[in-house]
Amino acid sequence: MVHYPAWDQDEARSIVSGLSHLEGATLPILHALQEEFGYVDPQAVPLIAEALNLSRADVHGTISFYHDFRTTPPPRKIVKLCRAEACQALGCEAVVDELAREHGIVVDEHGGPEKAAVETVYCLGNCALGPSALVEGELLGRVDADRIVALCGARQ
Ligand code: FES
């Protein structure tokens, strides 16, 4: 599990200025910020716009175009639950429903950096043993809602 430091505007500024000389610097800067802090805080937008002589709308547009960029701190832990066809046939949607109904865990909804989150993925290559999940690099088969809750570490 990766623990990121809290957003630090001075540190962000030095990351931005360290990369602003690159051609097409927006993406390298966004990646570097996300690598450092786990997300790109909205406070980065004016920094990047100013350093690269772009409008804030341009920077914002780039961030929202690429779905890999988070604009809020990442969850403490992420459990990826497969919801592709084979896992659907093996009951993954019932797991999703039970998580919401019995445990208040809404798949793909993030409760902030102190909570674990369950995210949808499409096929983990473990189709015969679905529903499949991936947590911290470990591939798991035949998961049910209770197992997911346990994997979330009581949502810590
Ligand atoms: S469909 Fe779920 S692992 Fe392939």
UniProtKB/TrEMBL annotation:
Q: Cofactors per UniProt? A: [2Fe-2S] cluster
Q: Name one Pfam family in it.
A: 2Fe-2S_thioredx
Presence of the UniProt keyword Membrane in the record: no
Gene3D superfamilies from the entry?
A: Glutaredoxin, NADH-quinone oxidoreductase subunit E
| InterPro entries, per database record | NADP_DH_HndA-like, NuoE-like, NuoE_N, Thioredoxin-like_sf
Keywords carried by this UniProt record: 2Fe-2S, Iron, Iron-sulfur, Metal-binding
Family in the record: Belongs to the complex I 24 kDa subunit family.
List the PANTHER family hit by this protein, alphabetically: BIFURCATING [FEFE] HYDROGENASE GAMMA SUBUNIT, NADH-QUINONE OXIDOREDUCTASE, E SUBUNIT
The name on file for this protein is NAD(P)H-dependent oxidoreductase subunit E
> Which source organism does the UniProt entry give?
Bosea eneae
